[in-house]
Amino acid sequence: MNELPAPSVKTEHEQLDQMPVMQHLIILRKYLFKIVAVTLLLFFCLLPFRNFTYQLMSEPLRQQLPASSTMIATDVTATFMAPFKLNLFVALMLAMPFIIYQLWAFVRPALYEKERHLAMPLLIGSIALFYVGIAFAYFITLPAILHFFISVSPESVAPMTDINSYLSFCLKLFLVFGLTFEIPIITLVLILIGVVSTQSLVEKRRFIVVGCFFVAMFATPPDALSMVMLAVPMWMLFELGLLLGKFLEKPQSTDT
């Protein structure tokens, strides 16, 4: 009696390929509904604390302002909209692990077993690095930049920053540093999928360092301090991703 052939490893992938596009969209809608629901829940839970949250974010600026200066609102709705926008941003940041997990659950069936084992640590690492980037911007970069700009202002000018302008400045800075701290993950993924090798990255290191300063020049305020405080971490994070890539390349080379 002949034995039945073993089921193919790609059966699950073949089923996904044969699934109509509308079915994929229906499944994606389910995950998106969960993301929106959790984000809105966090938003409304944090809403009573929106003014306190804005006070925390404005603390680095208020510490640098002279005793006679305060923050101002140039628009009637600014006193409501600025804390409201910040509250939404904080809700999204707190929901980020859940958002990433839902997206991971959606794409997980399309991945092979080896890809699943690598994807989860990379996702956890990307979330952690994003939070570290925002913390670095808030505790280190933002106070240094504010101190520089206020210290160079003319004596006849009393610095009074609009709360909406300050919010936009901070959120841009947080996003830039949060995304910048993803460089090790991006470098590692490019190495693992074979787009680049560690040897080619080492050979192009000088161009990458120049590129870090070039990107920082456009992504930060127009001063040398901001540019250096972004470019140097970008360079160090690239070196970290390169180091991790070298460790992961060794087991692959021994297996082959």
Report on this structure:
- Its main location: membrane.
- The chain has 256 residues and is mainly alpha-helical.
- The chain has one domain (32-60, 73-152, 160-248).
- 78% of the residues lie in helices and 0% in strands.
- The chain has helices spanning 11-18, 21-46, 50-64, 78-107, 113-151, 163-180, 183-192, 198-203, 205-219, 224-255.
- Helix 3 crosses helix 4 (78-107) and helix 3 packs across helix 5 (113-151).
- It is flat and about 65 Å long.
Summarize the structure.
Helices cover 78% and strands 0% of the residues.
Task: Supply database-style keywords.
single chain; mainly alpha
Secondary-structure element order, N to C: HHHHHHHHHH
Give the fraction of residues assigned to helices.
over 70%
Number of helices: 10
What is the number of independent domains?
A: 1
Instruction: State the end-to-end distance.
Output: 38 Å
For the secondary structure, the number of strands is: 0
Q: How much strand? A: under 5%
Question: What is the residue-averaged pLDDT?
Answer: 85
Query: By helix and strand content, what is the structural category?
Result: mainly alpha
Q: Uncertain segments of ≥5 residues (pLDDT<50)?
A: none
GO molecular function: proton motive force dependent protein transmembrane transporter activity
Organism: Acinetobacter cumulans
Protein name: Sec-independent protein translocase protein TatC
Main location: membrane
